[in-house]
Amino acid sequence: MRMRWFVWLLVGLAAAAFGLFAYQLSRPKDDFVHSAMIGQAIPSFDLPPAVADRPGLSSRDLADGRPKLLNVFASWCVPCRAEAPQLAALEASGANIVAVAIRDRPGDVAAFLAAYGNPFSRIGKDDISAVQLSIGSSGVPETFVIDGRGVIRYQHIGDVRDRDVPVLLEELRKAGA
Amino acid sequence: MGGFLAMLLLLGLSLPLAAQDLLPPAPYAYRQLDDPALEARAQALMETLRCLKCQSQSIADSDAPMAGDMRHQVRTRIAAGEDPEAVRTWLIQRYGDYVSYKPAISATTWPLFALPVLLLAVVALILWRRLGRAK
Q: Which residues from A are below 8 Å from B66, CB to CB?
């Protein structure tokens, strides 16, 4: 009889454990590795131009007082093609979009932009993913909101869909656009 | 019918879209450091860092271009005299604890370390009571 409370304690613990398993299993899986750099100043970098008709990109360009979208993309990345119309819509809504081309050849970038449009005011060439790693980006495409002081405010992982356009515009507005 | 067959043939012949880049790997993605002592430190660290593209592999195991770029970062930073744990911290600041395979006690992981100790204590208590009663 003295052990009864102990048995009930074990039953309670087992029920709690199974409850925890059920809760965790019912939650959608999140495969994304989120950047831990939100709220941090963008690390300093200086990338050469990725194409002839746009300047390169440095961290100073991102701290010029005006908030921007920073798109991490590549011509070899299939979802980057899918997000082209949404990036064009963002640019049409007044967003200033700069880009980093990851592990890409100038001719391929130029052909990609000719085929899918060029919403970028600057494109830096990152051949060893150095800037990508420095901002905690783990793939292409990703889109960051950078405020006028060069602080990373928001990260969107994956291609920008229609429903993400107002979210990004709102984040830009919160960043002071 | 002929058109349908031609379409099937075209589908079969079409090449999969290249989802990989065509650039050569970063200089130190596959090249070891000249100093064997530094390379050993870099290798030990790379085996405990997660590849972000292929999340159950270490960057030492993975041939993903991004893992190569991460190895380049690790090797060049260690060659420049950085401590391996400083490089690990640099990556954790960017990607969170998830990027490191090295077990660390933190606000979220402490139950993993506390639970076995607790269970052993319970076992010891039960054994003590049973053996004590048998006497």
A: 129, 132, 138-139
